[in-house]
Amino acid sequence: MKTTATQPTQPQPTQPQPIQPQEQDNFELGDNNIDDEIFNEVEVGIRDESNVRTKRGITRLSDIWNLPPGKKVVVDFNATCLPVGEEGGVFNRFIGTVARKPHLCPINCKSWHFVPNHYKEDCWSIIESKFFIPDDERDLIKHNTLKSLGEKLRAWRCSLKEKYYDESKTAAQVVATAPATVNQEQYADLVSYWYSTDGQVCKIH
């Protein structure tokens, strides 16, 4: 159901509220669920809790989301702790799906800096549960990963603005055209920011 709202005089984005666990699986990603986007099969290494390694072909990111508990993709990292190789490509794609999950990365924060830490920690916990992270490089990998996640969230917010913002319409009209797959309250806050004085003069973060 579409949300209707009046255009605020001085929009004040609300503090994003954690979504209850039972609601989380109902969220899709933007206009297209990129979890189920099919790409050329990639064979990745999988390690389980017993340290047994196997190979598995994946063709969509939902394969990673649906890995059994305890099984993780083995990723190689370079000297600066950035993911490399085919598994590294899957790692980066997966981060992109996390950035579009409204219960993990709220779009109504002005920038990654303003996203509360508990969201960031939840994101990292999920990423770490799907990919094997070497203990001796964990801190730097975490830093790089969360930085990348913030960049992908910014890109997602920008893509929403590019597609839905229309200066010939009121904020209420734009809110009413919200894609059904985003969090409606977060989207209304984001649209209010677009139409605010700050949103008009500042490049969106």
UniProtKB/TrEMBL annotation:
Ranges where the record places region Disordered: 1-26
Domain of life per record: Eukaryota
UniProt feature, compositional bias: Pro residues: 10-19
Name used for this protein in its record: Transposase
Organism: Rhododendron griersonianum
